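Might you be able to check the backbone structure tokens below? Thank you kindly.
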Amino acid sequence: MTTNPDTQLYIDGAWRTTGDDLPVIDPATGQEVSRVAVAGAGDLDDALAAAVAGFETWRATPPRERSRVILAATALLRSRQEEIAHAITRENGKPLGEARAEVIRGVEFFEWDAGEAMRTYGRVIPSGPDSRNVVHHQPIGPVAAFSPWNFPVSQPARKLAGALASGCSIILKAAEETPAGAAHIARAFHEVGLPPGVLNLVFGVPDEISRHLIPSEAIRLVAFTGSTVVGRHLTGLASQHLTPVLMELGGHAPVIVCEDTDVDAAAALSADRAMRNAGQVCTSPTRFFVHQDVYERFLDGVTRGATGIPVGPGTDPDVVMGPMANDRRIAAVAELVEDACAHGGTVTTGGRPLGDAGYFFEPTVLADVGDDARIMSEEPFGPVAIVNPVDSLDTAIDRANSVPFGLASYGFTNRADYVDRMVDRVEAGNFSINTLEASLPETPFGGVKSSGYGREGGTEGLHHYMVVKNVMHNMDIG
């Protein structure tokens, strides 16, 4: 069995082991592939001290030099795409093609923010002849960042890119289930000479680490990607110390399919994207509201598309969908499917765990699910598409907005008036038309309502990592 190297902590420019570690499991087999070091209180204190010192060095580094270092590290990551992709697949289970694409997506986040590092412009405010008012944007300080297991490279990259480009130091608590991706990133920055303390990488018991880092006076921003439940908890911890937060939380993305669209093309795309990463994507299209005139045709297309998706280990070149992350996710999705059927839903394909080894679940399509079913209000975070008919666009918009989430949303139509109505009324931070791609490095990404606060990416991506300082300067005392 191929394994990954054991993963260490990276603190103050050096790798370290601890007296404790955890197993890393391949979800395709259920077997251990490596160990990951667990940070103790002393390690976290060292990381805090290192981040404080590293911030003083990095904030004084010119933006052009910060950009050079970031781009040098990303060049290494590009050159190691294949090695990193195989590590991702062994820990996360996603097909190698998806893992390769994720490495490049993470690199592109770094490349975009490296450019933005040199464009954090202030402004001069018109004033009297003997005074000046100038607005400056300055790095906020050391950041405590938390990234999830579903995208082991691109999610850490998003946090690190924003912090490093802005001039902040960072302590990243990456997912102990999938540690290799973040370790590869830290290794690349170490090799290109990032000053010690600017980037610190820790793993361990999430609640213990958050309760240790967030209350520290050293931490000036908390950045998190994950579930809404955990996001609320971390926001509560931060609020006790008036520490700002950047929260990218859960979703339950609606897809509105209008009667004028290319139904067959929309159905084929929907089946593919709903099952990407086994549905373990916060922007995954999950709730399909389809105009009744094209409902049966769309449902048939999605069902056929999902049924034809090859499932298996991500290392198999013919596989399109890999396993879920763990057995807990299998049980959670199975419960939601069972409850949906109890509330009028019909399974048109899938609906069950798959195989005797690993954490596989069949690509699943549910039809005509009642609004009182749990899956209509709880994000499945699994390979499930829920397809329900609607009688009008207004009904579809109302049902799209009926949950407390508002991260990503989608619409299929060729009518300009439909587009305008959806853009105006659908409650989400990201709305895509005739595509199920939610964001790019150059576009802002984030949610509304219970899907979070703040934006990553685009020209807005560095805003949360900086503070605004107004300088009023009189030429004479008076």
About this structure: The mean pLDDT is 96. The first helix runs from residue 41 to 59. The longest strand covers residues 131-139.
